[in-house]
Design a protein that fits this description.
heterodimer; A: 227 residues; mainly alpha; 10 helices; B: 10 residues; little secondary structure; elongated
């Protein structure tokens, strides 16, 4: 665990809280893509299936392989799952009437199908758990596309939405730094599937980062995209 | 595809 990894995780955690706070405070989820949020629940569900493995070790009192890192990961995984499901739940129940569904027009199969095919071809092990893990990595890289499309459609984002987007994009950018650090300091550490997907994910946020910093510098309340 | 890497990240 290095400073980049822990900062990335905390930034990721912050992104959920920013979004939940925003939705609760404004009683609205306008400008937030339901499709992107739905994809994040799928990403975490497919990736964190190993929670059952940890749970199995705990209920059989097999603590030999449970380290501090396992406990940290388990705690964070449960938080990420709970937060993402809660966001989807909020957007489909009390905030449904404020949802931007009419403009949330991205076709999810356009990312789901390629990610599934890629996960079946390019994986480290041809096992169900490993393929689902790989699928989640590919899907996370592109899951923000409906949100970006909605942002372009709308032409602007309010302050909290752009902080949320910055936190989500920033977390993966910090993971890139973490991977460089781990590659330099840990023998045999190389996970090219995560590296390539992480790079693609960060690159997708590139334009957004640029406008975010321009906005922060100029002190505007809302982020407006050039038309 | 190289050596298997355990998933110790989030």
């Amino acid at each position: 665990m290095n400073i980049f990894r822990i900062s990335a995780d905390l930034l990721h955690l912050a992104s959920f809280f920013i979004l939940i706070f925003k939705m609760k405070a404004t009683k609205s989820c306008k400008g937030i893509s339901f499709k992107t949020q739905l994809m994040y629940t799928l990403v975490f569900t497919c990736r964190y299936l190993d929670l059952f493995h940890v749970l199995g070790m705990m209920i059989t009192f097999n603590f030999a392989h449970i380290t501090g890192l396992t406990l940290y990961n388990t705690f964070m995984k449960i938080l990420f799952l709970a937060a993402s499901y809660y966001i989807v739940y909020l957007m489909r129940t009390e905030l449904k009437s404020t949802s931007d569904d009419a403009r949330d027009t991205f076709v999810l199969w356009h990312i789901l199908a390629p990610c599934a095919v890629l996960a079946l071809i390019f994986n480290a092990q041809f096992t169900i758990l490993e393929i689902l893990w790989t699928f989640s990595i590919y899907l996370e890289a592109v899951a923000v596309m409906p949100q970006l499309m909605l942002l372009i459609e709308t032409g602007e984002a309010d302050s909290l939405s752009s902080h949320y987007m910055f936190a989500v994009g920033g977390y993966r950018a910090l993971y890139l730094v973490n991977w460089v650090y781990r590659y330099a300091t840990e023998p045999y550490y190389s996970n090219w599937i995560a590296w390539i997907a992480g790079f693609v994910q960060t690159a997708l946020f590139g334009d957004f980062f640029y406008y975010y910093f321009v906005k922060i510098m100029s002190g505007d309340a809302a982020l407006k995209l050039p038309t | 595809t190289g050596d298997y890497v355990p998933h110790d990240e989030l």
